[in-house]
Amino acid sequence: MYAKFHTPTTSTPRARRHRQIAAGVLGALATLAVIAMLASPEATAESESDGFTCEEITGADLVTGSRPGDTSSAPAAILGFNHAYYVDRSATRAQEFLTSDSVLGVDNRLQTGIDAVPAETRPCVSISPLNTLGDAERWAVTVTEFRPDIEPWVARQTVTTRTVDGRSLISEIALA
After folding, report:
1. What is the pTM of this model?
2. Dihedrals phi, psi of 136, to nearest 5 degrees
3. If you write DSSP's letter for every residue of 133-158 in order, what string do you get?
């Protein structure tokens, strides 16, 4: 003889409450995901023909943008390098943001990389500090490439910078 188990055909108040809580949590998570997507620099950028924008933020813990940059600070040098790479499309200009011992500019590899990217590609760069090791600073960098007719592509990097003769320069870029 088999044992009989009682399985209620209607939901108990406790089961209904658990389902309501689970639905509420899932709804909240979905809402947070939508807010995060809308607030991210990647979501606010469009192709240049549609009025490309990349939110320009300058803070202690976050710098974002696509401006030309300079060598006054590490984030400015990172922005400058990416602008030279994607907008100016010039290895010569990009090398102005590299230390003399950086392997990035060796054997014309930099120009080869630039030439492999479609000319209409626009970057949106996000930079956050990681740590300092001696005279080197490490940065978490996210470059979102907005290419024509395809979804944005995201590259996560660790960029090492050093100050040489009063100028912030990039010594290394590695995939994160």
Report:
1. 0.71
2. -105, 145
3. ETTEEEEEEEEEEE-TTS--EEEEEE
Other C-beta atoms within 10 Å of 88: how many? 14
**Look-up of token digits 């602008």:** 83
Return the structure tokens found at 41.
């620099």
Distance separating alpha carbons of residues 132 and 29, to the nearest angstrom: 35
Q: Which of 135, 132, 127 is nearest to 164 (CA)?
A: 135
* Contact by Cβ (8 Å): 42, 65: no
The values of phi and psi at residue 69, to 5°, are 75, 180
- What is the b/e burial string over 56-86, where b = at least 16 CB atoms within 10 angstroms of the residue's CB? eeeeeeebbbbbebebebbbbbbbbbbbbbb
pLDDT of residue 15: 58
Would you state the pLDDT for residue 74?
Answer: 97
Distance CA 166, CA 129 (A): 19
Q: Structure tokens of 15?
A: 């089961």
